[in-house]
Amino acid sequence: MSMAPPCFNTGSIPMDLNKLQGLPVEAKATYSKMIIQRFYVQERGKVYVSYSGGKDSTVLLHLVRSLYPDVPAVFSDTGLEFPEIRDFVRSTPDVMIIRPDTSFRKVIEEEGYPIVGKEVAAVINGARRGVPSAIKVLDTPTSDSRYGKAHYRYLMDAPFAISSKCCDRLKKGPFRKYEKETGRAGIIGTKAEDSQLRALIQMKEGEIRDHQCAPLGIWTDEDIWEYIRIHELDYCHVYDMGYKATGCVFCMFGIMSDRHRFLKLKATHPKLWDYCMKPWNEGGLGMREVCDYLGIPTGCDQTNLKEYDETGAEE
């Protein structure tokens, strides 16, 4: 197998993201394998795949192990995953399961709810604590700058705490601990199209960063599914229930553009939905109050997936 030489530049490389995203899927696979090889050499083989059990990390693991079959996959069991994801992870060979030292409920209690998006939650949290830079962002009209968040100022008055710390404590924390204990560097399955922030990082820093590699950066969701079909890969069938993403079940990041998330959850996983909406003082997550404040449908009048489909909720 040919390997990229160890004397290559892993710094920031400006890229034409739109042009690269337009490549055919097999060209993207070749491109990604080149990135993986470079990173493997850079880290002297001390790497691992950050594996979520979702479609992106399924493709990522296939690409990595097509080159290096012995690279370990690591799954952080946060307690927020769909049961189908957990089952799929357990069926995948050679996956190590790590866990955080706290729970989602505890993070909410200590930090606040993750709502709207990481950037918005961080700004609201900072502004509430009087951080000048956060207040400035919140006071900047969105029309004046992409960093403006003035239309979210109403969240300053929300009757619940808001924070972006959830992912850091439940996912990133366990992986940092694993990396410290093993000396391995992570290969992650993030894509530029996932968010504006990821697109900016992709264009500015490229795929290889400080002891981290994101070889799927230029891929789209359509590419992922095409690769799965071409290579006849097994995937978690929670996607067949109508879910486009399989992130943390209870997370409310992205909720403003996925407003019927909890309608679908009640239809497909009523026990999980019940735990979400149950009042905090009754042992639930108290999300009904949060959804009501945001104007997000809770699913209280919806009973099954057929009814969800017939209501046209996805339109």
Describe the structure in your own words:
With 315 residues, this protein is of the alpha/beta class. It is built from 14 helices and eight strands. The strands form two sheets. It has a six-stranded mixed sheet, sandwiched between helices. Helix 3 (55-67) links the parallel strand 1 and strand 2 (73-76). Helix 11 (261-268) packs across helix 12. The termini are far apart. The relative contact order is 0.15. Residues 1-14 and 310-315 have low confidence and may be disordered.
Number of strands: 8
Helix/strand-derived class?
Answer: alpha/beta
Q: How many DSSP helices?
A: 14
Low-confidence stretches: 1-14, 310-315
The fraction of residues in strands falls at 5-15%
Overall average residue pLDDT: 87
Order of helices and strands: HHEHEHEHEHHHEHEEHEHHHH
Tell me the distance between the termini: 49 Å
Helix content: 40-55%
CA radius of gyration is 20 Å
Strands ordered across the widest β-sheet: 3-2-1-5-7-6
Please state the overall shape, judged from the principal axes of the Cα atoms: globular
Largest sheet: 6 strands, mixed
Show the helix and strand layout.
Layout: H1 17-21, H2 25-42, E1 47-50, H3 55-67, E2 73-76, H4 83-91, E3 95-98, H5 104-110, E4 115-116, H6 118-128, H7 132-139, H8 166-182, E5 185-187, H9 196-205, E6 208-209, E7 212-213, H10 221-230, E8 252-253, H11 261-268, H12 270-277, H13 287-294, H14 305-310
Parallel strand pairs: 1-2, 1-5, 2-3, 4-8, 5-7
Antiparallel strand pairs: 6-7
Helix pairs in contact: 6-7, 11-12
